From TrEMBL, chains A, B:
Pfam families: GalP_UDP_tr_C, GalP_UDP_transf
GO molecular function: UDP-glucose:hexose-1-phosphate uridylyltransferase activity; zinc ion binding
SUPFAM superfamilies listed in its UniProt record: HIT-like
Required co-factors: Zn(2+)
Database matches in InterPro entries: ADP-glucose_phosphorylase, GalP_UDPtransf1, GalP_Utransf_C, GalP_Utransf_N, HIT-like_sf
EC identifiers of the protein: 2.7.7.12
Species: Thermodesulfovibrio obliviosus
Active site per database record: 166 (tele-ump-histidine intermediate)
Domain of life: Bacteria
Binding site for Zn(2+): 40, 43, 113, 164
Protein name per the record: Galactose-1-phosphate uridylyltransferase
Length: 332, 332
């Protein structure tokens, strides 16, 4: 029989429709393998087609906005928000609005057009995480901003408009609703038990084992108890950390956890398109006892989210226990 | 400059990215016009391929599960939830779960394979609304159920797996999260002001005019102030009604509002795929002063919802004022 499961953090209910039991091969593959096709604005030599770089990892003898870099962060050429100006918070009758002030940046993860986060050298994955961290740390200094949303759209079906592998970040003068809901819910749990709900989940998952996909000394990768979509996967630090940060001045273990997860997704689901979103504490309450940063990865396997995203109620044809088993057993 | 706008009911923030200003013709059309292609389980003559009908609108001289009907409601052949059994609510460590008990039904809206809600006779649209109402009223008697989620996936890109026009409903032993959030938020507003927030929104929109698409004596159709997606459209009763119900024993005015809206969407966006979801009060608190039932329609215009649905933060390239103007001016 199907099960109704409640995600303890967001409160959303999900039907795990085991009778529909979809295995990896039941999803139409939309392989995201890259090929060089025509002009690419993110490839070396074409630096002039993007706005000037904000930071880059490059040898000291190379000039900004010229080849030689291994990673670049540039402003989005078509930003959803602009960096200059005042917020001018105001009402329109009973509504609330403000100017679209913020930062919208692109992290070009590698000069190699054919690489992806799952195939590039592990050191390059570490650099991507450092780029996230440096940009968050820098944008935090701007008192207009309350949150930096870091995300990745991998593959056209997941919303990537440029093939060359990249992530994005948006610095926001507000805290996104899902993060706010998670904070409130985690705070409530903490008031009741004096423990972080994520820490409790991790302890329990380590005991149950069945939803664990991978772990190293610092990070755990698991299928959440009530996943919205098949093969939804979360990466969390094992010890309590409220904000995204390196572990002992290194991102090597997180890079290992992230790349291993993506390699496993590639192996099980034939290089699927996916989205991931970094969930971390808002700047205002960055260091706290109740919230636990993590990365949520959702492969894009079904044609549409349909009514589900519009109702906050999800039907998932693949149980997280089964997904975790496929992922765990995939050799990469 | 872009604007950040807050939806007063859900609390979500949306960027209205006017610089990206997408007009209707900027969206790649994925026309949902129907053609007869091969066997259709919902066409007259094939009644035996679906489970037995729950209700049907048919002449008295016709037998159940035979042709002659104008509308049928049947159990979903591959239900996400099953009707028989106990909920058996239980924990799994800190998690909450229950058996997948519920109803999952399909409303076959017309025997005409080529028809759609926007093209069928208005009387047939009324019948669809009556079918929703009858089924909700019947399922309410089952004390296991707290909510009936009525929705429609129109077109393959919006998740419809069968071309023949149909809606679905899922009776649930829980209240979906988005509805719960809306209830809580509306309740809070009511405590503060002793007024329904939706009624206030309607009064204000009638004054502003710029986001109104259509109205008749009983219903108003508008672009919400902070739409998640381009051309998101809401239909609400003008007077306070907390639960979905006919007006003076008739659905004629609601059918008029719904069909006019869908015809306008077809005209402006070339028969787009879409999802709609009926938002109504949970059974337990059906008649109340603070919540206002409504229908939310979201055309499926972009390839993916991407990171946006995963973060609760949306970038919408079409302002609701512009969308409303296109919709208002479309002659149907």
């Amino acid at each position: 029989m199907s099960e109704l499961r409640r995600d303890p953090i967001s409160g959303r209910w999900v039907i795990i429709a085991v009778e529909r039991g979809k295995r990896p091969s039941d999803f139409a593959p939309v392989s995201q393998k890259r090929k060089i096709k025509g002009f690419c604005p993110f490839c070396p030599g074409n630096e002039h087609t993007a706005p000037n770089e904000i930071i880059a990892f490059r040898p000291p003898n190379t000039a900004p906005n010229t080849p030689g870099w291994t990673l670049r962060v540039v402003p989005n050429k078509f930003p959803a928000l602009q960096i200059h100006g005042d917020l001018n918070k105001r009402g329109e009758g009973i509504y609330d609005k403000m100017n679209g002030i913020g930062a919208h940046e692109v992290i070009i993860e590698t000069p190699d057009h054919l690489a992806s986060l799952s195939t590039m050298p592990i050191k390059a994955v570490e650099d991507v995480l450092w780029a996230y961290y440096f940009r968050i740390t820098d944008l935090k200094k701007d008192i207009r901003f309350k949150y930096v949303l870091v995300f990745k759209n991998e593959g056209e079906a997941a919303g990537a408009s440029i093939e060359h592998t990249h992530s994005q970040l948006i610095a926001l003068p507000i805290v996104p609703q899902l993060v706010k809901n998670e904070m409130t819910s985690a705070q409530r749990y903490f008031e009741l038990r004096d423990r972080c709900i994520f820490c409790d989940i991790i302890a329990q998952e380590l005991e149950f084992e069945k939803r664990i996909i991978y772990q190293n000394d610092a990070y755990i990768v698991l299928s959440p108890f009530a996943p919205r979509e098949p093969f939804e996967t979360w990466i969390l630090p094992k010890r309590h950390e409220s904000r995204f940060e390196p572990r002992e001045k290194s991102f090597s273990l997180l890079a290992d956890a992230l790349q291993t997860t993506l390699k496993k997704l590639d192996a099980v689901l034939e290089t699927p398109p996916y989205n991931y979103v970094l969930h971390t504490s808002p700047f205002q309450d960055e260091i706290n006892e109740y919230y636990h940063w993590h990365i949520e990865i959702i492969p894009k396997l079904t044609k549409t989210a349909g009514f589900e995203w519009g109702s906050g109620f999800f039907i998932n044809p693949t149980s997280p226990e089964e997904a975790a088993q496929f992922m765990r057993e995939a050799t990469v």
